[in-house]
Write a structure and sequence with these properties.
The structure is a single chain. The chain is α/β, with parallel strands linked by helices and about 600 residues long. The protein is about 35% helix and about 25% strand. The chain contains 19 helices and 26 strands. It has an eight-stranded antiparallel sheet with strand order 3-2-4-1-10-9-11-14, with helices on one face. Strands 5-6-7-8-12-13 form a six-stranded antiparallel sheet. Strands 18-17-19-20-21 form a five-stranded parallel sheet, sandwiched between helices. Helix 15 crosses helix 19. The chain is globular. The structure holds 6-O-phosphono-alpha-D-glucopyranose (G6P). 6-O-phosphono-alpha-D-glucopyranose binds next to helix 9.
Length: about 600
């Protein structure tokens, strides 16, 4: 995700902005920029693609002197990384920096174009600068009033800071569904997307809430809502270390990212669900299903497990056959693939060498290709005919969590899109899936809250020689993912199995020393998993069940239960994976491992 820093006070703004942005570098970015109200009453903007060092070099050649300014590091979501797409965006005398996604950008852009306005970037952010400039030209008497008028037209997630040439001693900041924090100093005020950017200057902070608009002047700040009603927000003294602040107060990035999943999934769905039409838009891309006879999903690691769930989603909604292959196998197999196939490459990093090679192989054989990725303009989306970004925000923990659930959400979107086009998904059934999908983020939030830290469970099992995971249907891939997560960070041997396969071998492993995680939510295949569970119990196996709230049958039969809410089978993986992520995290911690940087693993594997 992008970083924002803004400053108003008596000191030169540029070093404070650059210093703050450097504190956010760990989050990743592809371009950077600043805008400063320079002392002669004009706005100066410097921005460029690449590292902050490039921006600093630019500022050495063309300095900006002034003590009110805004700064940004961009991680591309709309429009590739380039000088033109870097923030701040300027329209007339208004400059803006923005984190988040403007959902109704297509409609707003068309309306603004209709009034003769021209755009110089591919970003959704530039629209906000146009809207504020328009409001000022239409007679808004202050930057605050113009910003309110502009933001009332905007739907989506944003953390925004605005500065205007005609109002040099002011900043306006607004927050909706993207984080933003205010830092209060002596005769100076700071705004940042994340606390690490301002801790060096002040620990007296106000965490802003949804719909807050802050008006900052040299005299201080006021917080109101979009209609102008005053809002009181308590300040607090932050006692986090710089390292804790980077992790948003969590002890590890992985835990922070586990808890970010409701937001990640919301961001993946944002702007793509067409509720009145019972349809899904893939950002305006149309996949013609008339000549489509099959899908082939290629991926590695956790993304491969998302693909296995995707098979259920797509086959159920679109009734098209789906094959799922490990990218490293597919590419060397002389695969049977051609013009009637859609090859879907899933990769959070967008750079995995095997997945990229598999996609190119498919393309060279005439297949159409679609990339599902979290990194805009990375190699895999660049090579594909269609792209679907997950917008989960940067993932730093090596063991993937929020990118996985965001991939599941993206695959469900793809399934609905295809199903509506093949005609196999009726408007009513699509509507039902869409409403169930919309309930998922809140269910995830509740589940994470209720599960707690699983410390006791982890202490009990931290020294076992191995774990087994089993599930059926859509939860079979979750058994595989649960085992992979545990292996990755706890270094305990773990295997995932289709529950029905237990009796064909793995059951020989069962005794009272090997915990078996049974994923058994109510729904399709539930009774079958129950009988598989009994087979384990009969052999003294220790069962940890993942079960639907209130399922007494399960709770009477096993040692521990991790509860999840009810959901349709296709969407259950978005919930059943959560306790398994938390369990792996807790076991890894109990064993004293480095959770975020497990041994021998890399976040992005760009070699074969
Ligand atoms: C590495 C990571 C895994 C990831 C896999 C595929 O092995 O450690 O977490 O699942 O690569 O990565 P991708 O970026 O293609 O999803």
């Amino acid at each position: 995700m992008c970083g924002i820093v803004a400053y108003i006070g008596r000191r030169p703004a540029v070093p404070i902005l650059i210093g703050g942005l450097k504190r956010l570098e760990y989050r990743g970015y592809d371009s950077a920029g600043v805008a400063v109200a320079v002392t002669d009453g004009l706005l100066g903007v410097r921005r460029c693609r690449g590292r902050l060092a490039n921006l600093e070099a630019l500022l050495v050649k063309a300095p900006l002197a002034g003590n009110v300014g805004i700064g940004h590091t961009r991680w591309a979501t709309h429009g590739r990384p380039s000088d033109e797409n870097a923030h701040p965006h300027r329209v007339g005398g208004v400059c803006v920096v923005h984190n988040g996604i403007i959902e109704n950008h297509i409609g707003l852009r068309a309306r603004l174009r209709g009034t003769g306005r021209e755009f110089t970037s591919e970003t959704d952010t530039e629209i906000v600068a146009h809207l504020v400039d328009e409001a000022l030209k239409q007679g808004a008497t202050s930057l605050l009033e113009a910003s309110r008028k502009a933001l009332r037209q905007v739907e989506g997630a944003y953390a925004i800071v605005l500065i205007s040439q005609d109002h040099p001693g002011e900043l306006v900041a607004a927050k909706n569904a993207s984080p933003m924090v205010l830092g209060i100093g002596e005769g100076e005020t700071f705004i940042a997307s994340d606390a690490p950017a301002l801790l060096e200057h002040t620990r007296n902070v106000v965490f802003l809430d949804e719909g807050d608009i802050v008006h900052l002047t040299h005299a201080g700040y006021t917080i109101t809502d979009l209609e102008g009603a005053k809002r009181e927000r308590p300040s607090r003294i932050l006692d986090w270390s710089a390292e804790q602040a980077e992790k948003g107060g969590f002890p590890h990035f992985m835990l922070k990212e586990i808890f970010e999943q409701p937001t990640a999934v919301t961001n993946t769905l944002r702007g793509r669900l067409l509720v009145p039409e019972s349809d899904v838009t893939l950002d305006g891309q149309e996949i013609d299903t008339r000549s489509l006879s099959r899908l082939v999903i290629v991926a590695c690691g956790t993304s491969y497990h998302a693909g296995l769930v995707g098979k259920f989603m797509i086959e159920s909604a679109a009734r098209l056959p789906v094959e799922v292959d490990l990218a490293s196998e597919f590419r060397y197999r002389d695969p049977v693939v051609g013009p009637h196939d859609l090859v879907v490459a899933i990769s959070q990093s967008g750079e995995t060498a095997d997945t990229l090679a598999a996609l190119k192989e498919a393309k060279s054989r005439g297949a159409r290709t679609l990339a599902i990725s979290n990194v805009l303009d990375s190699a895999i989306p660049r090579a594909a005919d269609f792209t679907l970004y997950t917008h989960a925000g940067i993932e730093i923990g090596v063991a993937s969590t929020k990118c996985f659930t965001a991939q599941l959400a993206a695959l469900m979107l793809l399934a609905i899109h295809l199903g509506r086009r093949t005609g196999t998904l009726s408007p009513g059934n699509a509507q039902e899936l869409i409403s169930q999908l919309l309930l998922i983020p809140q269910k995830m939030e509740n589940t994470l809250k209720e599960l707690g830290d699983l410390k006791e469970l982890a202490e009990r099992y931290k020294d076992v020689p191995g774990f087994l995971f089993m599930g059926r249907g859509t939860n079979y891939p979750i058994a595989l993912e649960g085992a992979l997560k545990l292996k990755e960070i706890s270094y305990i041997h773990a295997e995932g199995y289709a529950a029905g396969e237990m009796k064909h071998g793995p059951i020989a492993l069962i005794d009272d020393g090997i915990p078996v995680v049974v994923i058994a939510p109510k729904g399709h295949g539930y009774e079958k998993v129950l009988s598989n569970m009994s087979e384990v119990r009969a052999r003294e196996g220790q069962v940890i069940a993942v079960a639907t709230h209130g399922d007494k049958i399960i709770s009477e039969q096993c040692q521990s239960v991790l509860w999840v809410p009810d959901a349709p089978s296709l969407l259950q993986p978005l919930l059943t994976v959560l306790p398994l992520q938390l369990l792996s995290y807790a076991v890894s911690l109990a064993r004293g491992n480095d959770v975020d940087q497990p041994r021998n693993l890399a976040k992005s594997v760009t070699v074969e």
